[in-house]
Amino acid sequence: MAAEPAWLAEGRRHIWLPYTQMATAPPSLAVAATEGTRIVLADGRELVDGIASWWTACHGYNHPHIRTAVAEQLARMPHVMFGGLANEPALRLAKRLAGLLPDPLNRVFFSDSGSVAVEIALKMALQFWLNRGVRERHRFVSFQGAYHGDTFAAMSVCDPEEGMHSLFAGALPEQHVVPLPRDEAGIAAFDAYLAAQGGDAAAVIVEPLVQGAGGMRFHGPETLRALRAACDRHGLLLIADEIMTGFGRTGTLFACEQASVVPDIVTLSKALTGGTMALAATVASDRVFEAFLSEAADDALMHGPTFMANPLACAAANASLDLFEREPRLAQARAIEAHLGEALEPVRGLPGVVDVRAHGAIGVIQLDDMSRIDWLKARFVEAGVWVRPFADIVYVTPAFTIDEADLARLTDALVGVVTAWSRER
Ligand SMILES: *Cc1c(COP(=O)(O)O)cnc(C)c1O
Predict the structure, then answer these.
(1) pLDDT band at 70 (very low <50, low <70, confident <90, very high)
(2) Which of 239, 250, 270 maximizes ligand 1 atoms within 8 Å of its Cβ, making it the mutation to test the pocket?
């Protein structure tokens, strides 16, 4: 094996890694390059990528169409401020996103990360009420198992354990975090909860169809329809956090389509630029937008990230949308779903395997014990794949462009490693 590159050895002492206990963490792998659905390591090994870099690289890495668009924009204008100045990629992207989302989701507010897009959505919902003179609607309703980001307001609407509500008790705003209604009884209980306790709530926030970073838990379209109906009945806004599900991951361009539900606010990020640049959007309905229109300067939405509507990132996003138009991404996602549904079956029922499930291009094996997570991670790399178990799951969310051979390598590795794990437990 080739020696570790100098930049890794020297930089390691100065870097702080995400979600990582730095005292005990195994070292990160040095990456030399990416291409398609492969990650090329500095020592020459190649891994089949099962994660698409946290669900972003939906067309695979280094797609030539996105590269060309970004290179052309880089030569013309990498960035210009958005206050008072308009750039063509951003305005074109706003028009396209409004066209892809159902009416009346027509107003796009750009930012640079998913957490910030969620902060903006929450702020929009709060100020929607304030601008109408309603002061008591200052809290949010969210769900156990949810993940909406790492900034403070976003954390406050995450699952209490995931969002570390007890660790940050006192520092986090207190929200209504309730069980996600999954059946008639759950829906009735949710409705009763809103009737009794929802008087101070501005909005309900949900990840439609898939709770992602909370453990890839799925729910049906009837849940979304029930949430929409409950919001209408109790006068709350509905925020759909499509940061993970948006752009085809569940088999439709947006997950809400599968329930024919139109939220009041939608958040987008992750696959928005096809995995090339940081960009996010918070898209509001006409009704939400109109609540900010008045003669009073104070009624304006008080937000404006420095790199808002960055032209390079918007050029990447426009190129990514071109690919959704020109290439059969949704059909590819559904073909991956069909493969995952069959290929992961052999581990169902093995000792320690709690559940096996697939929805769109998301395949999940749920385990009863994650105490050997580092062992699992190491076996996957040995098997030539990049898979990152977390919480109680081993999962894959590959690029939609993954070919049959690489997809089979991925699922073979999943089945092989989980089978070995089950035998040795
Ligand atoms: C990843 C994610 C976020 C946070 O996005 P960041 O870009 O990491 O801040 C928010 N909501 C959902 C559903 C996500 O999957």
Answers:
(1) very high
(2) 270
C-alpha of residue 95 to centroid of ligand 1, in Å: 23
**268 in contact with ligand 1, CB cutoff 6 A:** no
CATH topology for 64-326? Aspartate Aminotransferase; domain 2 (3.40.640)
d(CA 258, CA 27): 41
> Do 64-326 and 6-59+328-423 have the same topology in CATH?
no
Atom 8, ligand 1: which residue's CA is nearest? 114
Ligand 1 within 6 A of CB of 207: yes
Q: Provide the strand spans (E) within 249-361.
A: 265-268, 280-285, 353-359
Active site residue 123: no
Radius of gyration of the chain (CA): 22
How is the chain split into domains, by residue range? Answer: 6-59+328-423, 64-326
| Residue 150 and residue 113 in contact, taking contact as beta carbons nearer than 8 Å | no
Ligand 1 mutation pick, 118, 245, 397, max ligand atoms within 8 A of CB: 118
Alpha carbons 23 and 284: distance in angstroms, whole number:
43
Homologous superfamily in CATH for domain 6-59+328-423: Aspartate Aminotransferase, domain 1 (3.90.1150.10)
Which is the catalytic residue, given 193, 264, 270, 406?
Answer: 270
**Considering the entire predicted model, what is its pTM?**
0.98
Token pair of 99, please? Answer: 């066209």
Mind listing the pLDDT tens digit for each residue in 354-394?
999 999 999 999 999 999 999 999 999 999 999 999 999 99
The answer to whether 241 is a known catalytic residue is: yes
Q: Is 70 exceeded by the pLDDT of residue 2?
A: no
